[in-house]
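--- STAGE predict ---
source: upstream dedup step, 1 unique chain passed
mode: sequence only
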Amino acid sequence: MRLSNGEVLLRWPLDQHILTQGWKYNNGNKHNGVDLRTQIGNTAVRPAYAAEDGTVSATQLWDGHTTDERSMQSYGNMVDIRHADYKKQSLVTRYAHLFKFIVCKGEKVKEGQLIGYSGATGNVYGAHLHFEVILGGRRTNPLTWLDDDFTTASSSVYTYGPGEHAVERPAEDKPAASTLQTICASNLTNAQAMAVFSLAIQLQLVAMRLYWAEFSDAEMSHQNIEVGPITQGDAKAVLDKLSAVGAKGTAQAA
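--- STAGE serialize ---
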């Protein structure tokens, strides 16, 4: 998005913001982008989203054979999105090593729109999303275009160079108070809890570790559960499921 001060604040391309490699590799060599962890539980195929409104300027299908790091094929399945110019220079974001993409060249996309799924195509040692921000044809540190809502996989991961920092959002651009909710329910039978657990799997809440449960009695015949923080739509679905199986839950602002 374009902020009121004219700066650009990009959306994180994944819902999980764990940095495994920064603008420089952990050994100090130049990386030219950032790598984001995609592994959650037993899957590394995670939704990838457009960082800002724009037009898909390029897509690439991995040929499955290249080992030449100088080739664009080293990126594997890849999507480039051209955004509105910034300070009279072209602005492009790149999403690489995808399992697959679901957009085509020339397609207009909105910020936060699903564009594909993370994977391990191209020259990689493990599944991750490689993300680049290219200004005027030159790659720049992506962390200077994003907010500071991230963690690093280790203390050796490079983040900012001298004078670099996350985008600072002016007060008038601050987001409204969170509308996320947490759903709690007590003393559910195992069957009731399993029904909610099955729904949480469908909504990918279990994979994102947003479902918690514990047995509430010594006989392990009843459970207390907590789901969240989740969107109001997901919260309604969970409450509806609880009602359908004859249980009650309470919603609290996250």
